[in-house]
Amino acid sequence: MSKKIQIKVNPNLKQIPIDHLVPYAKNPRKITKAVPLVAESIKSFGFNVPITINNMIDKIIVSGHTRYEAAKKLGMTSVPYIELNHLSDLDIRKYRLADNRVSDESEWDKNLLRTELAELELNSKLDAEWFNNIGFSQEEIAKALAGTMQDNEQSLTKKNECPSCGHTW
After folding, report:
1. Is the same domain home to 42 and 77?
2. How far is residue 161's CA from residue 169's CA, in Å, rounded to a whole number?
3. Is the pTM of this model over 0.90?
4. What is the domain range of residue 143?
5. Short-list 7, 166, 139, 152, CA closest to 72
6. pLDDT digits (tens, 9 = 90+) for 107-134
7. Which one of 10, 13, 25, 119 is most buried, by most CB atoms within 10 A?
8. How far apart, in whole angstroms, are the C-alpha atoms of residue 56 and residue 38?
9. Residue where a domain terminates, one of 88, 105, 122
10. What confidence tens digit (pLDDT) does each residue in 7-34 have?
11. Which of 131, 74, 96, 99 lies closest to 25 in space, CA to CA?
12. What is the DSSP string of the chain?
């Protein structure tokens, strides 16, 4: 018999039964690889970012599909939510894309990341698995600490770019 996991949820947030939510059928974001990482984060730190829904009539997820799937994986029966009834249907569709897209443009400051990881490692000696709940692999942490972490743009071919001539389309 598995042990029931207690998930911390901010008491200031309203909650909705998870089976009342409707995933957006045309969600273009592929989330499968992120679900276990988000589930681990929710287990470790609580459910801190609510799922957004269009309204209380349709209850269609606007943002938070990965959190929704992670919550299901964890066996949660309700999740925190925010209703975006102040947005039009068109604005909700735009927001859904923007919410997912903007993180793609973020980059890591490798020096600050190295410092943060080094401090966490120093303060986590009693917990050999401390890195599991922050979304980085042991290899990524080792590279960051060694100062050998590569920028994604430097280590991977750009999307739609010919590796031999650099022509993009």
Report:
1. yes
2. 7
3. no
4. 110-155
5. 7
6. 889 999 999 988 888 877 656 677 777 8
7. 13
8. 25
9. 105
10. 999 888 999 999 999 999 999 999 999 9
11. 96
12. -PPPPPPPB-TTS-EEEGGG-B--TT-----TTTHHHHHHHHHHH-B-SPEEES-TTT-BEEE-HHHHHHHHHTT-SEEEEEE-TTS-HHHHHHHHHHHHHGGGG----HHHHHHHHHHHHHHTTT-TTGGGGTT--HHHHHHHHHT-PPPHHHHSPPTTB-TTT--B-
Token pair, residue 98, equals: 């923007």
Looking at the fold, whether 66 and 148 belong to one and the same domain comes out as no
In a domain, 161, yes or no: no
Token pair 């994604």 is found at 152
Tell me, yes or no, whether 121 and 79 share the same domain: no
Domain CATH for 83: 3.90.1530.10
